[in-house]
Amino acid sequence: MTSASADPADAFLSLRGLRKTYGSAVAIDNVSLDIRRGEFMTFLGPSGSGKSSTLYVVAGFQDPTEGSVMLERRSLLGVAPNKRNIGMVFQRYTLFPHLSVADNIAFPLRVRKVPDATLRTKVAAMLKLVHLEGYGHRMPGELSGGQQQRVAIARALAYDPPLLLMDEPLSALDKKLRDELQSELRRIHQETGVTILYVTHDQEEALRLSDRIAVFNAGRIEQVGTGAELYERPATRFVAGFIGNSNFLPVHVAAVNGGVAELTLPNGQRLASSRLHCAARPGDDAALMVRPDRLRLDDPMQPGGDDNVGVDVQVRDLSYLGDSVQYAVSTPWQQELCVRQPLAHADAMRWRIGDHARLCWQPSRAQLYANA
Amino acid sequence: MLLDFDRMGRPLRATLVGIATLTSLFLLAPIVFIVALSFGSSQWLIFPPPGWTLQWYRDLFADPGWLEATWASVRIGLLVMVLSVVLGFLTALALVRGSFPGRAALKALFLTPMVMPVVVLAVALYAMFLKLGLTGTLFGFVVGHLVIALPFSIITIGNALEGFDFSLEDAARICGASEWTVKWRVTLPSLRLGLGAAAVFSFLVSWDEVVVSIFMATPGVETLPVRIWAALRQDLSPVIAAASALLIGFTLLMMLLAAALKKRNR
Predict the structure, then answer these.
(1) Are B176 and A155 inside 8 Å of each other by CB?
(2) How many CB atoms sit inside 10 A of residue A362's CB?
(3) B165/A159 touch (CB, cutoff 8 Å), yes or no
(4) Less CB within 10 Å around the terminal CB: N or C of chain A?
(5) Interchain contact A96–B (C-beta under 8 A)
(6) What is the DSSP string of A247-278?
(7) What is the pLDDT at residue A2?
(8) CB contact under 8 A, B189 and A155
């Protein structure tokens, strides 16, 4: 699907044709994915998109209806969760309330009958890793949410699992703590080199943390790639809408010529030479996606030119966002579009509500999607 | 809050404190009364006691009948406690976690002994146990008390289970714990407050149960409350006061134990 998918031969964790159904409801629909050793892979998608279900299949809490899960070329299916040697951090803190912080971290080691001396060294090292030295004797109830989740991470990594699963681990925290723990997570990932499978519905979090992101929708993976790939070249309209802000212009495909299409806007205006990113035939209705920060407001009636297409618009609203100004403009066919002008640009603050302007973009920065 | 103690004004506050004091006195007076009488020197239970003595306690401990009744009460109470907690835990687990047809009906059924008049229950058990030859046996007492104690266990442990986050079990599993280890080292310790409360409740229910016990008792086997009741009908002796004081003392001890456990766990 994308250039970034790993070679199956060096896949560390390999999901093949995963499917999970409950009666007639399909939770996971043919998911295949290869994850490299040491990679930070995020499953991103709205709730009910199958991202958590897929994670729970890897953890062993759910069995897939079809498909395989291979970790280091060994099948995990049929292996009980407690025999998989995988670490996991949950959405809620899930610390054992009757055990101290140190005993919580020691729990997986005690279960593995690790000798006492080794156990103490390991617990101390884990407390150091999550920056909670001196907190070993505390009870979970005495810690803040962020601290509890650090302990959960320490517990999940105490037995050096090759794979760490994280199910929306920061969603219960407030914004500031979330930002703090995100950078902690990046550091821990770099220090330990553990392979992480991370589930979130927060695209900003996914972009900030991940090496690669798998975008889930309705039980399927829509696209796998780095944050930049997903933002610059979204494979589907869903990905375009889910990652970053986007404007979708309703267009009609007038002609297709090689990889280039000629489009008609609702007001009859022709747009020449828009690059095609999907199979479109002349006569189809489609959607042209342009990011708000790829749009530019210019003087009305400027000639377009080959590398610039434009539409006459009127400014409806503007908001000052510190580093940029966001304009709401309406098209001749009464569609409201979002434009973001960086303040570094000299003309950024020039427009007032009611002004007429020309909305321009480079055709190569727009993407065409077939209507679903 | 509408009824805020600090803001309700002096007269209202004074009235409230007055009512509370009177109620407490009303509840505590019999206890103080009986304990005082047990140490009183009067043969005829005169209050206030003309002098003080330990005579009645000596009589109590010298009488094998009283000792046997106390021992029977303790044994029955402990057996009821263990059975009530074990069965109550399993039942509550099924009622809280299970999804099967008739779950709500089953729950209601398990709680009926709480609303059913105890006399009715006692007569029914008596009729059945007479037929089976189980009256006057330890087993008969234990089953009778268990029927009354079990709803308390189911409710208390059920509440604890409702508050228990079952993803803790998943967390323990992925840490490498087997199903047994998960239950022993995570689930049960997390529920320890509920289990402890159920144990204390169950013991106390059995410890001061009279109605079913009177039906079950034979001259051979009787519990402390039955013996007190019987002795009261034969002759009014201060030994009864001593036995009652003992009963109260032990109950108090159990409640203090429960409170101490709760405090330590917090």
Answers:
(1) no
(2) 14
(3) no
(4) C
(5) yes
(6) EEEEEEEEEEETTEEEEE-TTS-EEEEEEP-S
(7) 41
(8) no
The total number of structural domains that make up chain B: 2
Chain A contacts of B183, Cβ < 8 Å?
none
The predicted pLDDT at position A3 comes to 40
pLDDT in tens, A143-183: 998 999 999 999 999 999 999 999 999 988 888 889 989 99
B148 and B205 part of one domain = yes
Are residues B40 and B128 located together in one domain of the fold? no
- Rounded to whole angstroms, the maximal C-alpha distance in chain A is 79
Contact A341, A327 (CB under 8 A): yes
User: Is A87's CB within 8 Å of B174's CB?
Assistant: yes
The predicted-structure confidence for B93-121, as pLDDT tens digits, reads as follows: 999 988 888 888 988 888 888 888 989 99
Residue A304, pLDDT score: 53
pLDDT in tens, A251-286: 888 888 777 788 888 888 888 766 666 667 777 888
Name the E strands within B106-195. Answer: none
| Cross-chain CB nearest to B190 (options A98, A107, A108) | A98
- Per the structure, the complete domain to which residue B91 belongs is given by 55-265
Return the number of CB contacts < 8 Å for A and B: 66
Residues B73 and B204 in one domain: yes
A372 has pLDDT over 70: no
Q: Is the pLDDT of residue A220 over 60?
A: yes
For A96, the closest of B168, B173, B265 (CB atoms) is B168
Q: Are residues B172 and B192 in the same domain?
A: yes
CATH number of A245-370: 2.40.50.140
The answer to whether the Cβ–Cβ distance between B167 and A94 falls below 8 Å is yes
Asked if residue B183 and residue B157 are part of one domain, the reply reads yes
Residue pair A324/A348 in contact (Cβ under 8 Å)? The answer is: yes
Answer yes or no: do B170 and A81 touch at CB < 8 A: yes
Partner-chain residue, chosen from A59, A61, A94, that has the shortest CB–CB distance to B168: A94
Structure tokens at B48: 């206030």
For A343-349, what is the mean pLDDT? 77
Which of B81, B80, B77 has the alpha carbon at shortest distance from B197?
B81
**Same domain? B9 vs B75:** no
**Of the partner residues A81, A96, A98, the one whose CB lies closest to the CB of residue B173:** A81
**B84 and B43 within one domain:** no
Tokens 């304009």 — which residue?
A327
Strand pairing partners for A196? A40, A164
Residue of B165, B169, B174, B191 to mutate, testing the A interface (most A Cβ within 10 Å of its Cβ): B174
For chain A, domain boundaries:
8-241, 245-370
Q: Which residue has the higher pLDDT, A74 or A270?
A: A74
DSSP state at residue A363: G
Residue identified by tokens 């929306």 is A168
Task: Tell me the residue length of chain B.
Answer: 266
Residue A312 forms contact with B (CB below 8 Å):
no
- For A51-172, where are the alpha helices, taking DSSP H only? 51-59, 101-111, 116-129, 145-157
Q: Do B174 and A112 touch (CB under 8 A)?
A: no
Q: Do B174 and A107 touch (CB under 8 A)?
A: no
pTM over 0.90: no
ipTM for the predicted complex comes to 0.80
Residues B153 and B181 in one domain: yes
B176/A159 Cβ within 8 A: yes
Domain containing residue B149: CATH number: 1.10.3720.10
What's the topology of domain A8-241?
Answer: Rossmann fold (3.40.50)
